[in-house]
Design a protein that fits this description.
Layout (H helix, E strand, L loop, with lengths): L2 H64 L8 H20 L4 H12 L4 H6 L9 H17 L9 H30 L7
Helix pairs in contact: 1-2, 1-5, 2-3, 3-5, 5-6
């Protein structure tokens, strides 16, 4: 065999090796992308299922918040029930992937433990419907997440709840300072 045949065979062998290697590399890359796409789809499906579960639970809380008792005697049970429903929802909220969404829903659920404050401050915008409206905002946030939309701006109800919460925290801080001052003036007296 002359040299040109050997060069031709060598070139063919090199070309086949390079072509085969590129083919294998492309197959591995395609498989990797498909695996990642499948994994992302499963994550998205799980996230959507969790958001749907949270929507169902928050809707139940909102419905119960609308059924406020007509007499003051039933308020303790009403508040306990709403607090319990909110606590039962916490595991679903902890599994939400979006940090901003999770924080907003946790905030909404936190206000279910402040029913007296949200309903007893009409001068600050509190009303019997405020807890329900705060829940509605949470539902809007969860709905936006399911539709892959950005979180809505805080609603007027949520802003009112924040204002009442800040007022209540300030009031409690002042009361604590007053109690501490009284104790410092009368060291024999114990704290309440």
């Amino acid at each position: 065999m002359d040299g040109s045949v050997w060069v031709g065979l060598g070139g063919t062998l090199v070309g086949t090796t390079i072509g085969g290697g590129l083919s294998i590399w492309a197959s591995v890359g395609t498989q990797s992308r498909q695996t990642k796409a499948t994994r992302d789809l499963r994550r998205e499906e799980k996230s959507e299922a969790l958001a749907n579960e949270a929507i169902t639970q928050l809707y139940m809380i909102r419905q119960r918040a609308r059924d406020f008792p007509q007499e003051r005697g039933g308020w303790d049970a009403w508040q306990r029930e709403l607090g319990q429903l909110a606590a039962e929802m916490e595991p679903a909220v902890l599994r939400l992937r979006d940090d901003a969404l999770r924080e907003r829903i946790e905030e909404v659920l936190g206000y279910m433990d402040m029913l007296y404050e949200l309903t007893d401050y009409p001068a600050r915008g509190g009303s019997l419907m405020l807890p329900s409206e705060v829940c509605r905002h949470g539902l809007n946030c969860l709905g936006a997440a399911v539709r892959n939309r950005p979180l809505p701006a805080p609603s007027r109800a949520l802003l009112k709840a924040r204002e009442i919460d800040a007022f209540e925290r300030e009031r409690m801080s002042i009361a604590q300072e007053e109690a501490d001052r009284q104790i410092s003036l009368d060291p024999g007296r114990s704290s309440p």
